[in-house]
Amino acid sequence: MSLSDLTRESVLEAIAECDTLGREAFRRRYGFGAALEYVLVHEGGEYDSKAIAGVAHRYAAGVVLPAGRFTGGVDSVVRQLSRLGFTVARRAEAARAPLVLIAPSYGNPASRARFADTLDRAVPFVDGPIRALLKEGEFAQLIRLHPDGSARFWGALARHDSKMDRLAEKDPVLFTGDNHVQAIARLGCRLRNPELADALWHPDPKTGSWSNVYTVLDFERVTDLRYDEIRALAGYSPNDVFQETRVPRSDQAAALIDGLGLSVEENPEQTDARDEARLLRALNGQDDLFEAESHHTDTSEYDLPGRKITLQRAEARLVARYRNTLSDPQAWRLRLDVGWTDLFDPARADLIEAKRSASHRHVREALGQLLDYAAHASRTIERLTALFPEAPAEADTRLLHRYGIDCLYWEGAEDFVRLEAPDAARQRMRTAWSADTDTSP
């Protein structure tokens, strides 16, 4: 009896049994302890990797592999489960905060050609020479994340192995080059396969093979995110041009994810892209998406020492449209311990959070963020406001008002309508807001 008997199907059956019994009852039934170091992460759930492997042996070979017959380390359970296409992580990493990968991709003609060949378009991997270079576990990982049989690939040099090892599935990726971010995505499969790398890209004569091969999810080209914003959010030098693959520290990653609005999870609604496109069309007064050159007609700006930062997200452009209606031009974004606010109007001590849609989900998100921001603000907050591109449902407006939050929505052109929360509700909720009276920018 050995772990080599395991199949992907037997592991899935063990996971299903664990889901039915619960983790503790599952371990107790088969005589396993809780995972000390490595857990199996599957479809958002976390499982004791050694217990799953031992019980999976029962489904594969008819008998449970007892805990005393094998170890749960890198060279046993981790290797076998990874071979079958499963994700195994250290316990501390399973619940870790997401990191960000900054990947140079467009700095010279050769890298631009590679970008066009394997990143700007998906590469089939089910048949042909790519399939022949994939181990079974690697192929299983690819099919799990890319069930249509094609994926967008990029790579990193061997000297970046330790950086790539810090990353996890769905971590945001920024592809850089030519002084701005060329594309954003989320990390898919990570494969350490030099043969595959050499088939995808000819090795560089000076630096060698990109032996770290990875795929990406939700790839999106961007045209308006310049290096200044990354430098300011993450605290990099004003002269940094991001020529090396890097994984910022966790605090820098948090600032980038929050400040740039990067996605780290599956989009819970497929309507988000449509909502953003519709808002952008409305803001530009046209039926089709605006051209890149017009991105600069409406921007949301905030100042940092010696630098002015511009955000070009749909919400930021809605904020900019509203900001143009204010009598006080000094409205700014606040950087708090829990993230960046969309706008703070000092004339009214009004903290504003914008959303691309007035759907119930976005109303709830705005409510939670505003209360969180207010509790961490380093200045007196007199008013909380949720800004939408259209009027929310009456029930959602009542929900905001219950928590003392104004509802502000756009009617078109330069016209905004404010539905004020009852003063009694606002006064009741103020006790949960910051009482710090600092008024400096």
Overview of the molecule:
InterPro entries: ScoMcrA_N. This is ScoMcrA-like N-terminal head domain-containing protein. With 441 residues, the chain is of the alpha+beta class. It has three domains: 3-94, no CATH class; 101-260, ph1033 like fold, CATH 3.10.590; 287-432, no CATH class. The protein is built from 17 helices and 18 strands. Strands 4-7-8-9-6-5 form a six-stranded mixed sheet. The protein starts with 7 loop residues before the first helix and ends in a 12-residue tail after the last helix. Residues 266-270, 286-312 and 435-441 have low confidence and may be disordered.
Descriptive tags:
17 helices; single chain; ph1033 like fold; disordered C terminus; alpha+beta; 441 residues; 5-stranded mixed β-sheet; 6-stranded mixed β-sheet; 3 domains
Write the layout of secondary structure elements.
Blueprint: H1 8-21, H2 23-30, E1 38-42, E2 45-48, H3 49-61, H4 74-83, E3 87-90, H5 91-94, E4 101-104, H6 109-118, E5 123-124, H7 128-132, H8 136-145, E6 150-156, H9 161-165, E7 172-177, E8 180-192, H10 194-200, E9 212-221, H11 227-234, H12 250-260, H13 272-284, E10 300-304, E11 307-311, H14 314-323, E12 335-336, E13 339-340, E14 343-345, E15 350-354, H15 360-376, E16 383-388, H16 394-402, E17 405-412, E18 415-419, H17 423-429
Parallel strand pairs: 4-7, 15-16, 16-17
Antiparallel strand pairs: 1-2, 1-3, 5-6, 6-9, 7-8, 8-9, 10-11, 12-13, 14-15, 17-18
Helix pairs in contact: 1-2, 1-3, 13-14
